[in-house]
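Q: Here's a chain of 404 amino acids. Please give me its 3D structure as tokens.
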Amino acid sequence: MSGQELIAPRLRAADLLRVGAIGLRTRRTRAFLSALGIAIGIAAMVAVVGISASSRAEVDRTLDRLGTNLLTVAPGSKLFGEEAVLPVEAPEMIARIGPVTQVSAVARIDAKVYRTDRIPAAQNGSLGVRAVDLDLPATVGAGLADGTWLNAATARYPAVVLGATAAARLGVTHAGPDRQVWLTAHGTGRWYTVLGILAPVPLATELDTAALVGLPAAERYLGYEGHPTTIYARTVESSVAAVRDVLAATANPEAPNEVKVSRPSDALAARQATDAAFTGLLLGLGAVALLVGGVGVANTMVISVLERRAEIGLRRSLGATRGQVRGQFLTESLLLAFLGGTGGVLLGGLVTVGYAFTQSWPGIVPAWATLGGLGATVLIGAVAGLYPAMRAARLSPTEALAAP
């Protein structure tokens, strides 16, 4: 036999692929199920990476549209824990900072908003009322889903713009003269006409659950005393850090330690970090599914060797070398894993694009995820097929032909 092995012709790559594919074609159902296990694992990993990348791209797109140069000023706490108050002049003082381009004040009002005047006072759905400047949408990057924004005339009368969540909870689907909500403050109530409904505001989510009225109307009907509770300031992009350092002292020179300054875009950046941690967890689950698929491939190949001992013995007796037999079964395992991996990459890409479409996100599947998925399948195929291939190569012709 050693002489035959020395003179045995070498198998070309095309011949090796053709011989390796024979086992898959003759056992299609088993091959399909084994490849499916690989495909599910790869699809899970590609989809997780793709959906995470699409989500991050949407956050980046939102930040590009809204900007990262928005800062907020809010009252902090006094020495003994009482809530501090921002000076009435704070918005004007902040507007004098050179790099600040836009300033808008919002004041939380001790009032409640209801769908009708028949609803018990405790059932307001945690909705707040805020008095706002007219330039608020431009400052925070807010848009209208329906209707119009307050103007110099309507800000003086009982008119309101609802945040997206507030409108949904109140059952208000459109704005107009025929749509009214009930606002109460200090024991008295009044109907307010819904002028508009805001779209969700990513950089000022507190506005989503609020009913917004003009400052003059808030003073006249709701007892507003002029102290803002949140001030939004847009700055020159290159001066965000410098402005942030002086905002507290500018807003309240007598007690800068009682002022909180933040940048809303930091919350979106934190969401990206959270998504990254969650992605790591899901990738671990995908790896487990991939491992299960690899075990399935190994099981298929071991059974294939046991079932095809007669074929192995015949090939060995006709001059096939141990290396050629080993190569045949290793190639078969690689083909099985590669088919599963290709199907998994395609399925994962379709899941990513489909989910991104439903969320109105850009559908992104990183190239490294696709190439990494295919690379993982090749590695799994090699590992899963190595032992069965070596076992097949060790069979002697007489032992194999004598097997039942």
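Q: Can you summarize the key feature?
A: The longest strand covers residues 188-198.
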